[in-house]
Specification:
five-stranded mixed sheet; globular; Heat Shock Protein 90; alpha+beta; 27% helix; single chain
């Protein structure tokens, strides 16, 4: 999808960190966040995924885009079921993707947060506990 749209997609992985959980659900969580990042980034923009540790017993997945950004007034609601920002209403979708992503992160003992600036992009940060062993 990123290639078809002319959006650069890159991934950087730091230290190894394993997460115990439902692989399909974790893939769905990341897919939902990536789908939004690509969807709301214009051609010529970029989406960068990074996976690191945070010095604790956690794995941190960040999805940073150079997209349209999210208005401050919407940031408190974007993880609510069926919520769609005004600028997203012209795009296909149900408003469930980010709500589901947060539910999956929390079901795995983690969480997801967002920082965003209009016309500069957004960064979604997923924090999940590392598994004790692989």
């Amino acid at each position: 999808m990123a290639e078809d749209k002319g959006v650069s997609l890159s991934c950087h992985a730091g230290e190894k960190g394993f997460v115990h959980g439902d692989m399909r659900m974790l893939q769905r969580m990341l897919s939902n966040v990536l789908d939004n990042a690509v969807k709301y980034t214009q051609s010529g923009g970029s989406v960068e995924v990074s996976v690191t540790g945070n010095g604790k017993e956690e794995v941190v997945v960040s999805v940073n885009d150079t997209g349209i950004g999210i208005p401050q007034s919407d940031l408190l609601h974007i993880f609510d079921r069926f919520y769609r920002c005004d600028q997203s209403r012209s795009q296909a979708g149900t408003g469930l993707g980010l709500s589901l992503a947060r539910s999956i992160a929390r079901a795995h003992g983690g969480d997801i947060s967002v920082a965003s600036r209009l016309n500069q992009g957004s960064t979604f940060t997923i924090i999940l506990p590392k598994s004790a062993s692989h």
